Structures are given as structure tokens and as C-alpha cells.
Amino acid sequence: MVSKRLLSLGALTLIAPIACFALNQPACHNVVSPQLELCTDSPLDLYHLGKIKPKVFIISLFSPEGATWYGRPEIDVLAQNITIPGFSPLFPDAHCTSDGFVCQLTTGEAEINAALTINSLLHSSVFDLTTTYFLIAGIAGVNPKYATIGSVTFARFAVQVALQYEFDAREKPANFPTGYVPQGSRAPWEYPRKLYGTEVYEVNDALRKVAVAFASTASLFDSEDAQSRRANYALTASYTVGAAPPTVVECDTATSDNYWSGSLLGEAFENTTSLFTNGTGVYCTSQQEDNAVLAALLRGHRWGAVDYPRAIIMRSASDFDRPFEGQSAADNLFTSSPGYPVSLENTYRAGVKVVQGILDGWEETFKQGVPATNRMGDIFGPLEQEAQVVLEGAQAVLDHKS
User: Fold this and answer.
1) Which residues of the chain have pLDDT under 70?
2) How far apart are the first and last CA of the chain?
């Protein structure tokens, strides 16, 4: 006989059974929530029973990015509000639709907040995240060579560009183009000889392309002020894309707690992105959290909490990372950007298309996952490598680079 108890998970109350697996008793469970598996014969399934099982989890990074999802007619993510231990004291709750299929959280800004919040989510007893898609949905600085303010970008690579040695530029060697030098190396153009493991994360490129197709159906917002700011970049031949209207773009993202401005740093981190990805990555957006979020998800994947190939990196461009001709780096940094409200609106407009696309195609495509065509994981190696093999592979890379 199977006894029953009540589980109260925030606003969701379920009836779930307690089964005695020592006696090998089969269990068939009737649960209030229709999204949960009804029958199970393994302790692992029982562990997940009674939990909210999102199909999509939207990851915002600070208040305005979260607020852009609230009060929208398509998805009511405020139907359930669930306090999760370990979340930022500024953003203590996860928010979910009434059926639990779509949830949203705000991590707090910069790498430490992002890593701690996502790690706390993965260890929460509230959610079953084993088949959840994670949509990083934030705003970012933008490289005018590849996109413009208001554009929505989807990255394959996230590169922790500031995880390097650093000279004050006034004291750097004369032949160095930048004060940043990869760790363990002796020059900016040398591959890092000392790896921490968080320098690069690569996500599922096939899923990225699906997300881009969904987002491309959105009607992106724009403003006259944003158009006026963009026009300044038409004066520089290499910045013509920055002067064009916003679009959906495939290009890569740079993570750093440092909020920088200027052509010299922008070009330095373009080179870092290319170097760390063996010439594959193309830097176009700058932000403070993505490597941290992906680090937590990858580690969660290794112990079975999540499926890392379901991570999507979406960033909408709010401001230029470098000035236009005749503008100073300081003016670029300290003058408010008209791209800011545009980027917040386009985060939602493009993001909701991705969310709806996943929900609509769940049974036929997304429930089982989108097969990857690229190697995914961190700089140590592909996703499924064991730790020792990863370390040996990393050393082989370093030996090859020397």
C-alpha cells in the first residue's frame, strides 16, 4: 500500500506518495499537476516527483531585464512566486506560470551573483530541471562591427575575456597592443598556458540556430533617438553595421565584471575571443554574467540536475562598447544610451518567440532535445569527458600551443 502526503511548494500544492523501495513495491502515483510524470518505479523518479518541471527557465540578470517579462499577455510568469534559499537577497523569488511550464528568475549582476543564484536553483528541492531549456535573456554592450543597439544576438561562445594578467596601459611593454596577457603566457597573442576552466563555454549551435529562427519572426522595436545615435557610426567604414537598423544576429559574447568602454579595449577583447576559441569566436557583445551561468549549468549537467545542451545565450544590445568618430571613450561610457529602452523591449519581443516556439514544438522536437552538431562544454574539453581525460586534453592543447 502506498501512503500519501501533502507537499507545499510555494503556491503549488501537490499530493505525492511515499513508496518503500526496499520491498520493491511498484508505485503508481496520482498527482494533481498534469505536467508531472504519473508513474515511477525508481528512487530517482520519486526524487523528482511533486516538483515543478519547467519547459523553459528565463534567466534575467538585473531588475529591468526581469521586469520586461512581467505583466505581458502572452506569458504570466507571476502566477507563482516561490522563494528559493540561496538566491540574491534583492531577488529572492523564482516566478512561474500557473502550469509551471515557464519560469523566470533574476540572478543579480556580475559573475558571483550569477553563479551563486544558478547553483542555488540547481540544488533547490522545488524544481525538476532535467529537461528544462535555459534562456539567458539579458542586455549587453555591442561591437558596432557586427551589430547595433537594439539588435538581438545569440552566441555560441561565451568568453571570460578579463581572466588574464593585466598591466596598466601606461606601463605595458611598448610592443604590446594591450595591457592584457593570457595567464601563463608572456605576450597578448599567446594562447593561455594556465587554464582555470571557465575561460570559454560553448553551447549547442543547432539549438542556437533554432532560437535564431524563432526570434527572427519578431517585430523588433526601435526609436528615433536610437536611430540618431546609430547614424554617427556610419562615418567609419568598419562600423556600417552599427549604423544599420536592429536585427537578429549570430555572434559571440564576452564576460567580464569590468564594464569597459573604448576602441582599444574593444579590439583587445575581439582578439582574446578569437584566440581563446582558436579563431572560431566573433566578439560582438559584452556582459557580466554568462560564463558564470554556464559554469553552474555545466557542473549541474555533470551530476544530472540539468541538460547543458538546452542552454541558450540571448543578449539584446543596449549601448556601444566603443565611441563613434569624434566621440571620447568617456563620453561613450557616461552618456546615457537611447538603446537601453529599445534593448529591454526587444529582449521580450525576441525572447517570447523563442519561449513560444519551444512550447509549441515540445512533443515533436524539444522534449527529447535538439541534437548538437558541435562540441559543447568548457575550455578543458567536450561535454561528456571525464575529469582526468579533460585535464589530459587541456595539457595536450597547451603542449601543442607551446
Assistant:
1) 1-49, 384-402
2) 66
Write down the pTM of the prediction: 0.85
* Strand pairing class (381-382; 377-378): antiparallel
Place of cell 603566457: 185
Handedness of CA 235, 237, 239, 242 (dihedral sign): positive
* Calpha distance 148→227 (Å, rounded): 10
